[in-house]
Structures are given as C-alpha cells and as structure tokens.
C-alpha cells in the first residue's frame, strides 16, 4: 500500500530527527553565534575607518559622500548636528554684524545656518522646539544702558528670566538644547559689564540647556580687551566655536568633569574650560539642583529683595532638597515640633511664605499692608482716608452708593494666578495656581482683618481735617472689597468667609481674574461679583495678564459662562491700556455676550511707577476722553446696555444693562439693607430661597449720572486740589 509506505518513511525521519536533536541544537546555536560575531566585527571596522575617510580632504569619494551638512557620510544613520541658529540682540549693530560673520563661517562647513533677531522670535514656542531639533543655538547679545538688554532683546530676556524661576515651565524645559553664548560689553562700565550675556547663559543653564563651550565676552574697552578689541575677541571665540562645532558634527562628546555651580563650570586638572563645559551630565545637574534653588538667580542679583516667590516652587524645593538643607531651614525659620520623617509641606510653606510676606509688608509697594495669619492681608484704601476728611469717595461710591470711609479692603489669598503687566503691586506678591500652604480658618481671617482695619482707622484720631463723626462711623465696617491683591477665590473657605461677612451686616464686592470657573460656580451669593476682563483675544490676554495656566483661554471663557449663571449682581471690569487693548472694541462686545454681566466698568489703567516687572509708562494711560470714546463705541455695539455713570477722578465709566433703567431712571445703586434681608432668607432656607439683582437696587442720584456737571463727584463732599500738583500727561 502506497499510503502506508509514505507514512512509514515520514515516521522514520521524525524518529531520526528526535534521536539526533542535540546535534541539531548545537549546529543552530553555533550558526547564530557566528552571525553575531561577524556583525559585531563589521560594525567595529566601519566605526574605525569612516572618520578617517571623512577627515581626508584629498579623498574625492569622501567628499562626494558627504551629506548637506558636510559632517557625516550617508552610512551613518544619525545626524549629530542638523544646523546652527544664531540669535542676536543688538543696539548699535555690532552683534548683528558678528552674527552675519559667524553665519558665513558656519556655511563654509556645509551646515544649514539661520540668523535670527531676538525681537522677531517667540522664545516660548521656538526654544522648546530646539530641544529635539539637533541644532546648535548661538546667542550673541549686547549689554546696553544700566545693564539692560537692547530693545530688540528685551522681551526675549524677560521671558527667559521668568521661565528660569517659574514653576509652570519646569527645570528641564530646555533639556536637550545645545547652546553657546557670546556677550558684548564695555568693561569701562564695571558694574554692568556683560551683565546680559552672563544672565542669559545662567538662565539657559537653569532650564537644563547644555553648553557646548564656555561663555565668552567681548570687550569694547581696548585697554582691557583680552585680544585688543571686541572684534579680535570675537574672532578668537569664533575660531574656538568652529573647532568645537566640527567635533560635535563627528558625534564626539567630552563630558564635563568639573564642578558646575551657579551656572559656571569650573574644570579640574589640566582640562580646559572649553572641554570641561561641553556636556553636563544628568546626575551632576540633579546633585546641584537643590543648591541652585536656594541661590539667587544670578551673581549680579545677589542683593535683590523684590523677587517673586512662586508657590509651586516651594514644593519643588521640598521635593529636591537634601537633609542638610532641611536642618538648615529648620534653624532659620524655627519650625517647631515637626519630625523630618513626617515633615508637613503646608506648615513649611506657611513659615517660608510668612517670612517672605513680612519682608514685603516693609517695602514701599506694600506700605500700609497688614498681614493676617499666613496668607491674607488688609490695607486702608486711600479713598477711605479721603472720605474721612470729606474729600470725596471712590468710584464705587458714585456707581453703587457705598460709603468709602466704611469700606474694608482685604484679601484671603495674597497669591495670584496671573502676572498682569499693570499689576499695581509689581508682582511682589506670590503667584500660584492652587492652594499649597497651611490654611487659616475664616473666623480668624475676618476677626484679624476687622481688628487691624479698625486699628488703622483709629490712627486718624486727631489728624487735621478728619471728621469726628465719620471716624466713628468708619469703625463699624459696612462694606468689604475682596480685591486688595491676589486671587481671593483661591481661598478654599471663601464661601464661609462670605457668610461671616454677611452675618456681620457687611456687603461683599469680590473680584476674580477669570481663571477659576468651577470656583465661580460654587460661590454663594455675593453682593456684587466682578470678573477682570483685561483683554478680548487669546494673544492679547497672554501678553497683558501673563497667566500661569497653560489652558488660560479656556478657563477664561468658562469663567465668563459661569458668571452668566449667577442671579446676583455681576460686573465685567475692563482695564484699558493704550497701545495694548484699546482697539479691541468689537471683540469685547463678543465676550460680553457670553457672560451677560449686569454692569461693565470701563477704566483707564493706573500707572504705578517704573518697575522691572512691566514696561508700562504714563504713555500707556488713556486720557479720560479716550475712555469715554471707548465706552460710547462699546455701548453702540451693545443695544441692551447704556452708559449710566461716570467717575472722572478715577478715569472710569459704568455701562449698565437696560433692565436697571426703570421708568427712565437708572437704578445702579444698591439697597444694602434689602440685600442683607435677602441673603439671610437665602441662608435660613438652606439655599432654596433665591433672589436676583433686581430685588436690591436703588435709584442713582443725578450727580452720579454720565453727563452730569459733577462728573461723578459727590457735591456733599469738598473737592481738594493739591498745591503744585504735577501735570499728568495722561490727562486723568
């Protein structure tokens, strides 16, 4: 039978294979081993021979096989240097000229090169791309008057400085970026010699950028220049840079063997600074990170006292500090009764923040502030002082009928989630996006706020011009403006604090920066809820408010939607900054349709003096006539709104929804007694009894209306004009 014979044959083969399986296994293993050895030997020979053929200029074959960058043959799968980007910041043109000369030299190496003016570059988006682009970034930057960067590099440097100390960016934001810095300066100005180049080098390093060589400095002072002139200094550095660039093109690395500290690389032994500063290992960076967090941002700024403390950075400090640092800090801040094994971050942050804020209370910008507990503050408003003397009240007196001398200005959270360019505290307050420290109970916040407010009022007893009757009235607080500084709505017990204020018969005016939509939704009734609408487009909001949240625009829009859900009085606060946001009337009108506020305050920005935190000047303050024109144009685009009130002294106008115009009369003022009745009913009913803004309105007096001859000044008050008052170019 054929089938039986076939089966017998296969059966014999299978039995034979099984009996000799060990020989088969050995043969397969030997074959695999032999293949591995051949592959390893071939690759080793290729690595040894390729650099020689590439480095031989007489080899026509090697020349023909070069890639576009002239540094690697096609056999190599990895391009070590994709190109060079040269950034320059120049005031007189020298740095620009050097950038072009360097670009020509790099081009001779067959590398792609791009010359970029720092003024035309967005560092936030662009630099992050360079971390994975395999480009080498070169920064040629001059130091101008008083150690400041050139105008074209001002924003680039400012962003880099803030990024180096801002928690939201992260310490490894530029990890992978390879860079070199050449600074231009004049040693005749010893105090500011090459300050900008040194700081830029440090900021890049703090963000985990890797230097490919030591920072170099050109000196315009020929008597002190290392090579006789700034041009010669540049040529000497350029030669070293090109040599280093060729080394990088070949993929060679010389890791740093020195001690990196404070942004400087100090090599040991005979190794040159250039080679020791090339590549910073991760372990070395990590080992010095805790030390860096406790040092100033640069050697030149060691004496600074007004730097911003990011709340989230405090958490990073705790996460990375060494045990010795903890012991040191315990001695400095006297943190009692806390073991290191169970160290409470919130308590430590409280101690750290309180020490910082106590210093701030003594500085000029915070003079008059009184710190409450660990995170709150209170201050006597200048309009409170003015009305104590009978010299007029603030715009809230004109628009809403508050008694300015009975108003307490406070905040339960000194921290803020924005760094607005017009911040009247110049960013000396802390910043953060969430609650990260020990929390004081609302009872303590209110009790200490009222006590310290009353103590400040009592200091006016016997002061010339102060009216005794008003001084007595002022001791009984009737209004609370939760708008002093920071973001009050961040305080987790904000609703409890509002209830306590209402129980004391105190009306509430709460201001938020539109970055916490869920907190707005959870808010219990407020007498009047404000949202700061400082810009109408995503880009202008980014430039003006400089928010910490990456999703700031969506948070902003969601906050406006949350405001529309409120039944009590709501307000948009528009701050006009000339040359920044005064041309966005139509876009503002679109935002108003989202939040549907009851009122819109249009106010010119208040100039708070020069500050390194902002480039604003008096030229950015609009004239009162310009604010009027803006408000009129906005009202024209909003048929449901009209201009109701004006306070010329504050450079401010009020647009109100037409529902507050009853029988031809505006009712923008508040019936505070009626509000207290309504809020008590609301609380007693457990929230089931709701009420609306229309239920506690009052008639607006004629002198407060737009177009009145008084322009918002209460005729019962005595207007005071300062003698020899300097004329404001803003006209307000």
Automatic annotation (TrEMBL):
- Radical SAM core domain residues are 400-644
Q: Which reaction does it catalyse?
A: N(1)-methylguanosine(37) in tRNA(Phe) + pyruvate + S-adenosyl-L-methionine = 4-demethylwyosine(37) in tRNA(Phe) + 5'-deoxyadenosine + L-methionine + CO2 + H2O
Q: For this UniProt entry, which segments traverse the membrane?
A: 22-42
Q: What are the UniProt keywords, alphabetically?
A: 4Fe-4S, Iron, Iron-sulfur, Lyase, Membrane, Metal-binding, Nucleotide-binding, S-adenosyl-L-methionine, Transmembrane, Transmembrane helix, tRNA processing
Enzyme Commission no: 4.1.3.44
- Lineage top rank: taxon: Eukaryota
Pathway given for this chain reads:
tRNA modification; wybutosine-tRNA(Phe) biosynthesis
Gene Ontology MF terms: 4 iron, 4 sulfur cluster binding; FMN binding; metal ion binding; tRNA-4-demethylwyosine synthase activity
Does the entry feature the keyword 4Fe-4S, yes or no? Answer: yes
Region span, Disordered: 47-71, 253-305
Q: Where is this chain compositionally biased, Basic and acidic residues type?
A: 271-288
- The Flavodoxin-like domain covers 84-242
Query: What cofactor does its activity depend on?
Result: [4Fe-4S] cluster
One of its GO biological process terms is: wybutosine biosynthetic process
> Biased composition, Acidic residues: where in the chain?
289-305
Family designation:
Belongs to the TYW1 family.
State the protein's purpose: Probable component of the wybutosine biosynthesis pathway. Wybutosine is a hyper modified guanosine with a tricyclic base found at the 3'-position adjacent to the anticodon of eukaryotic phenylalanine tRNA. Catalyzes the condensation of N-methylguanine with 2 carbon atoms from pyruvate to form the tricyclic 4-demethylwyosine, an intermediate in wybutosine biosynthesis.
- Designated name of the protein: S-adenosyl-L-methionine-dependent tRNA 4-demethylwyosine synthase TYW1
| The species this protein was found in | Erithacus rubecula
Recorded name of the encoding gene:
Tyw1
């Amino acid at each position: 039978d054929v089938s039986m014979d076939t089966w017998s044959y296969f059966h014999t083969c299978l039995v034979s294979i099984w009996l000799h399986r060990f020989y088969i296994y050995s043969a397969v293993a030997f074959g695999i081993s032999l293949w591995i050895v051949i592959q390893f030997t071939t690759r080793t020979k290729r690595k040894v021979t390729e650099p020689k053929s590439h480095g031989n200029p007489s080899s026509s074959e090697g020349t023909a096989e070069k890639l576009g960058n002239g540094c690697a043959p096609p056999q190599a799968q990895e391009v070590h240097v994709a190109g060079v980007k040269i950034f320059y910041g120049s005031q007189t043109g020298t740095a620009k000229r050097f950038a072009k000369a360097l670009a020509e030299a790099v081009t001779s190496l067959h590398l792609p090169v791009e010359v970029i003016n720092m003024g035309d570059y967005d560092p936030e988006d662009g630099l992050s791309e360079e971390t994975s682009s395999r480009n080498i970034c070169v920064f040629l930057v001059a130091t101008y008057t008083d150690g400041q960067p050139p105008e074209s590099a001002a924003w680039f440097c400012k962003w880099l400085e803030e990024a180096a100390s801002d928690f939201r960016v992260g310490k490894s934001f530029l990890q992978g970026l390879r860079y070199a810095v050449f600074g231009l300066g004049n040693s005749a100005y010893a105090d500011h010699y090459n300050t900008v180049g040194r700081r830029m080098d440090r900021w890049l390093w703090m963000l985990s950028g890797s230097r490919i060589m030591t920072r170099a400095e050109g000196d315009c002072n020929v008597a002190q220049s290392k090579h006789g002139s700034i041009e010669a200094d540049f040529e000497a550095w350029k030669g070293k840079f090109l040599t280093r660039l060729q080394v990088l093109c070949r993929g060679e690395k010389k890791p740093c063997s020195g001690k990196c500290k404070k942004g400087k690389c100090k090599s040991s032994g005979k190794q040159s600074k250039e080679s020791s500063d090339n590549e910073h290992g991760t372990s070395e960076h990590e080992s010095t990170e805790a030390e860096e967090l406790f040092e100033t941002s640069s050697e030149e700024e060691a004496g600074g006292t007004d730097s911003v403390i990011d709340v989230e950075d405090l958490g990073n400090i705790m996460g990375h500090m060494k045990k010795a640092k903890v012991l040191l800090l315990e001695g400095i801040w006297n943190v009692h009764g806390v073991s290191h094994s169970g160290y409470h971050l919130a308590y430590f942050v409280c101690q750290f923040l309180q020490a910082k804020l106590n210093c701030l209370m003594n500085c000029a910008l915070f003079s008059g502030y009184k710190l409450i507990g660990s995170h709150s503050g209170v201050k006597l408003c200048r309009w409170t002082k003015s009305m104590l003397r009978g010299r007029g009240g603030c715009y809230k007196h004109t628009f809403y009928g508050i008694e300015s001398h009975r108003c307490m200005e406070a905040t339960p959270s000194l921290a803020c989630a924005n760094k607005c360019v017009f911040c009247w505290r110049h960013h000396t307050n802390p910043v953060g996006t969430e609650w990260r420290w020990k929390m004081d109970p609302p009872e303590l916040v209110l009790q200490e706020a009222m006590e310290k407010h009353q103590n400040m009022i009592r200091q006016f007893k016997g002061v010339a011009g102060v009216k005794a009757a008003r001084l007595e009235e002022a001791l009984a607080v009737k209004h609370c403006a939760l708008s002093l500084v920071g973001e009050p709505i961040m305080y987790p017990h904000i609703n409890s604090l509002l209830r306590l204020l209402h129980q004391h018969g105190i009306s509430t005016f709460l201001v938020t920066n539109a970055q916490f939509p869920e907190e707005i939704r959870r808010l219990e009734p407020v007498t009047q809820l404000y949202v700061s609408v400082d810009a109408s487009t995503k880009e202008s909001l980014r430039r003006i408010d400089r928010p910490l949240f990456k999703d700031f625009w969506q948070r902003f829009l969601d906050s406006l939607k949350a405001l529309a859900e409120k039944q009590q009085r709501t307000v948009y606060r528009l701050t006009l900054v000339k040359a920044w946001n005064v041309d966005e009337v139509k876009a503002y009108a679109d935002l108003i349709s989202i939040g549907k506020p009851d009122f819109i305050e249009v106010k010119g920005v208040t100039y708070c003096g020069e500050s390194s935190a902002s480039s604003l000047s008096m030229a950015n303050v609009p004239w009162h006539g310009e604010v009027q024109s803006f408000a009129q144009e906005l009202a024209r685009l909003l048929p449901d709104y009209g201009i109701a009130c004006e306070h010329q002294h504050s450079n401010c106008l009020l647009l109100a929804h037409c529902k507050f115009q009853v029988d031809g009369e505006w009712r923008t003022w508040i019936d505070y007694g009626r509000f207290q009745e309504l809020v008590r009913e609301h609380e007693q009913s457990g929230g089931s009894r709701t009420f609306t803004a229309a239920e506690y309105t009052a008639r607006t007096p004629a002198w407060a209306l737009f177009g009145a001859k008084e322009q918002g000044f209460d005729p019962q008050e005595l207007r005071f004009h300062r003698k020899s008052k300097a004329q404001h170019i803003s006209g307000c």
